[in-house]
Amino acid sequence: AMRSREEVDATLQTAKLNPAELLPVVHCLSFGPQAGAGDCCLLQLEPGLSDQLEAGCSLVIRGEKHEQVVLCSKDKTYDMKIADTSNMLLFIPGCKTPEQLKADQASCNIIHSQIAGFSKNYWELRRCRPKLKKLRKLLMEDPYEGPDSQKDQTSDFSKYTTEDLLSLIQASEEEILHQLQVMDACKIEGYWRILEFDYEMKLLNHVTQLIDSESWSLSKVPLRTCLEELGSLEPREMIEHILLSYGRKYIDDAGEVYFEMQEDKICRATAQMLLQNAVKFNLSEFQEVWQQSVPEGMTTRLDQLKGLALVDKSSRPETIFLLKVEDLPEDNQERFNSLFRIREKWTEVDIGPYIQDLCAEKQTVGALLTKYARSSMQNGVKVYNSRRPIS
Questions:
Q1: Name one Pfam family in it (predicted).
Q2: What are 259's strand-pairing partners?
Q3: I need a labelling partner for 28 at 20 to 30 A (CA). Which of 73, 84, 248, 378 fits?
Q4: How confident is the model over 281-292, as a mean pLDDT?
């Protein structure tokens, strides 16, 4: 039954409330026939996200059944966690807030409202790193070995379009596309592929040998001549892809396309090629072979190998070995565990490249080390070891 004004006033008196301190308008609530828990979900959004929704953009929930759910906007990824509340949250269509009632003094003084649903929790969003490790794993199932590869003709592995990756990877579209660029992936017949490393080196070698034979400057490699000269050896789009991967594209005043080759990236790839066939390499011998293996005019430096290789200064003679950051676990604690299994004590300089990608927005490597490692001094140098025993 609908309450009358007299019943409302009697209730206020019983509750010992002074009507003069309240707004004259009263909401009388009753549960509608369909009101139930679990029919609706509440999602708490930061202002930027709600603005995007109101502007007509989409938010997408991503994750396979076994994965922790995330929500993605066009360019960011958020962890979704259920937050319980001690107050019952009621959904009341057309409910007027005190501010609206103050502005609308002429309003009828009893409003009868039906509760359409209720909830005891809501989804809370927390900005997180995109989960991109799976992207490399999927593309590495079937790396591209070139047009003559028999494997590519008969391969049973899945190939992935942009749409496939958007449904499988827990990251926003912009983060996925950026990572594909970082990984030097390329689109072949509509599918994203990573070049098999030996094939990539073969392509790079063709380009560097041509630069050498033509005596071009490393900062001015002409696209057109590369395509004309090397097009008979490999597909032209592969030659252009390798130039885009290892050079910076620019157009001169005459409209010709040139590439400035990236010294650090070429030296790094050459080091990977040398190191991947040895468990450990004598450091001074490696440095000698490495410098001889890069194109003339390029200078090798150990700081080109951050996140790719690690020098062991404690062994005699000193050695170097391959340790790629992308092969390490994505989870923070697991990453630290695996690093402390490799080496018991690390300097910040050595461990930095292997944890840099774990830093959240505005978080430093130092802050991450404080959280996951214990520091001590060793021969006047600050070193970090695990906070917990590593099995």
A1: Dcc1
A2: 221, 249
A3: 84
A4: 96
CATH tag, 197-261: 1.10.10
Each residue's pLDDT tens digit, 68-99: 999 999 999 999 999 998 988 888 888 888 88
Structure tokens at 371: 């959280």
The answer to whether residues 192 and 162 touch, using CB atoms and an 8 Å cutoff, is: yes
Q: CA torsion 281→285→290→292, rounded to 10°?
A: -150
Could you tell me the pLDDT band of residue 109, with boundaries at 50, 70 and 90?
A: confident
| Range list for CATH 1.10.10 in the chain | 197-261
Residues 73, 238: Cα–Cα separation, whole Å = 33
Give dist(CA 176, CA 194) in Å, integer.
14
By the 8 A CB rule, do 335 and 324 touch? no
Residue 42 in 3-state DSSP? coil
State residue 215's pLDDT score: 93
Task: Give 27-50 pLDDT, tens digit per residue.
Answer: 888 887 776 666 778 899 988 899
Using the structure block, give the residue that is written with the tokens 């319980």: 84
CA dihedral 273, 274, 280, 281 (to 10 degrees): -160
Spell out the alpha helix ranges (H) of 39-190.
Answer: 47-54, 98-103, 133-140, 150-154, 162-168, 173-182
Asked if 51 contacts 128 with a C-beta cutoff of 8 angstroms, the reply is: no
Which tokens sit at 354? 């292997």
- Spatial distance between the Cα atoms of 238 and 188, rounded to a whole number of angstroms: 9
State phi, psi for 35 to the nearest 5 degrees. Answer: -65, 120
pTM for the model: 0.83
> What was the pLDDT predicted at 2?
76
Q: What DSSP string describes 278-329?
A: -S-EEHHHHHHHHHHHSPTT----GGGGTTTEEEETTSSS-EEEE--GGGS-
| DSSP 8-state secondary structure symbol assigned to residue 173 | H
pLDDT at position 296 over 80: yes
For tokens 């033509």, name the residue. 214
d(CA 86, CA 105): 33
